[in-house]
Amino acid sequence: MALSIRLSRGGSKKRPYYRIVVADARSPRDGRFIERIGSYNPLLAKDDEKRIQLDGDRAKHWLGVGAQPTDRVARFLDAAGVRERAVRNNPKKAEPGEKAKERAEERAEKLKAAEAATAEAEAAPAEVSTAETDAEAEAVVAAEVEAATEAPTPEAEQVAEAVAEETPAVEAPAEEAPAEEKPAEETPAEQA
Q1: Domains along the chain with CATH numbers
Q2: How many CB atoms lie within 10 A of CB 146?
Q3: What SS3 state is found at 40?
Q4: Are the C-beta atoms of residues 56 and 80 closer than 8 Å to each other?
Q5: How many CB atoms within 10 Å of residue 58?
Q6: pLDDT, tens digit, for every residue of 94-130?
Q7: Which end of the chain is more exposed for a tag (fewer CB within 10 A), N or C?
């Protein structure tokens, strides 16, 4: 016969009261037991002496006979100094589930996207200043193109074509690009 030292629930609905009993492991939780060795009232404060009442001598006797305590009763026995309980470690118990991990990954991705947007917003004023210097550089290139188109020599035409090929590589704001194309269109009219 396998013996266990366990809790047997009593009390009323939402007002639990437990008896610490020695019972056959096959008998129902609240059913027949061999001996009552204590009580546990979870409604009392943790520092109250009447919260857990345990007959240590009878508990030692039943442990000597071979009764196995449940985890909760083993905690009570350890607190009473009757039997030392081995500390258990289950690191996976506190690990979040798969869906919680997925939500955490999504939050991390959103956070990275927000940080990237913030970094881009901070870098935008710096890009505006480089756009101004690009606009000045394009104005100089446009002046060279105009100067090259005024002299109708073949060398000047090659220089103008080379400069024209380089200008699309420099990015300019959309508003300034059409304004620079108009003088380029006027120059063939001036040549004719």
Answers
A1: 3-80 (3.30.1320.10), 125-191 (no CATH)
A2: 15
A3: strand
A4: yes
A5: 17
A6: 888 889 999 999 999 999 999 888 888 887 765 545 5
A7: C
